[in-house]
Amino acid sequence: MSEPVFLPAGDTALVVQFGEAVDADLNRQVRHVGAKLRELSLAGIVDIVPTIRSLMVHYDPLVTRSSELQSAISEILHHQHEGEDGYRLWSVPVCYEGECAPDLENVARDMKLETAEVVRGHTAAPQEVLMMGFLPGFPYLGLLPETFDVPRRFEPRVKVPARSISIAVRQTTVYTVESPGGWHLIGRTPIEFFDPKRDEPILVAAGDRIHFEAVPVAEYEKLRKAVEAGDYVPVVQDIAPGEGA
Predict the structure, then answer these.
(1) pTM of the predicted structure, to 2 decimals
(2) Which three-class secondary structure state does DSSP give residue 242?
């Protein structure tokens, strides 16, 4: 892995670019450096924003300078740890049938697979939350097998239903509220990934992992009613460092 590149973003932000590709190991490095920098509580830092392959550090130029931040980040990189951090593993039910999955057949045809094979591939292993963005609580997950390297839709939708599970370019996203979107909709979950009425409105965070589990329409509708009634709690496990797959 090449050395990160420091790039100015105006006079109040610094971008640390870790690479050009979407890569899970590279993304873990981004998150690790961001977390360690946050722990330092350096004067002048306004916000730290990790993305899939870069870290943006917003700062107050009247308090600190870009060169000072670069020095601090370089020191963190010098002591970069090996191994894997602990994480939360979520079990998320998804209906991959009927109106919940309007693009599944087209995706399967493009992938030259049966729809059941697409579902098996999507649910085979936990997917890692690489970053949050676009909408409140909206996770970008990856990476799926190379067979899932399908482009975005040629024509984006004006309205994507909330809780839709979508895929493109070997990644999965979950639409947390109704919005426009250009990814392929292959399922829908009864779980709210963003609920402003909860004590913690946003369900998952970068670094979490999600294991999608296929459920039939009848089970999906039953679970959805339980969620709406406040009687459903998502299943989550705390995985200690070194315990994960």
Answers:
(1) 0.88
(2) coil
Alpha-carbon torsion, ordered 112, 113, 119, 125, to 10 deg: -80
Question: Could you identify the residue written with the tokens 């589990």?
Answer: 213
Both tokens assigned to 231 = 């009687």
Q: How far apart are CA 45 and CA 23, in angstroms?
A: 27
Q: What CA–CA distance (Å, rounded) separates 196 from 161?
A: 17
The token pair at 234 is 């998502």
- List all residues 6 or more positions away from 155 whose beta carbon is below 8 Å from its beta carbon: 182
Residues contacting residue 124 through CB under 8 Å, at least 6 positions apart: none
- CA neighbor of 55 nearest in space, from 69, 75, 44: 69
On the CB side of 34, CA atoms within 13 Å amount to 27
Q: Using pLDDT thresholds of 50, 70 and 90, give the confidence band for residue 25.
A: confident
Lowest-confidence segment of 1-5, 30-34, 43-47, 147-151 by average pLDDT = 1-5
Contact in structure between 141 and 165 (CB atoms under 8 Å): no
Q: Could you tell me how many helices (H) and strands (E) the chain has, helices first? A: 5, 14
Per-chain mean pLDDT for the chain: 94
Whether the CA torsion 190, 164, 49, 62 is positive or negative: it is negative
- Cβ neighbour number for residue 56 with a 10 Å cutoff: 17
Residues 107-134: tens digit of each pLDDT = 999 999 999 999 999 999 999 999 998 8
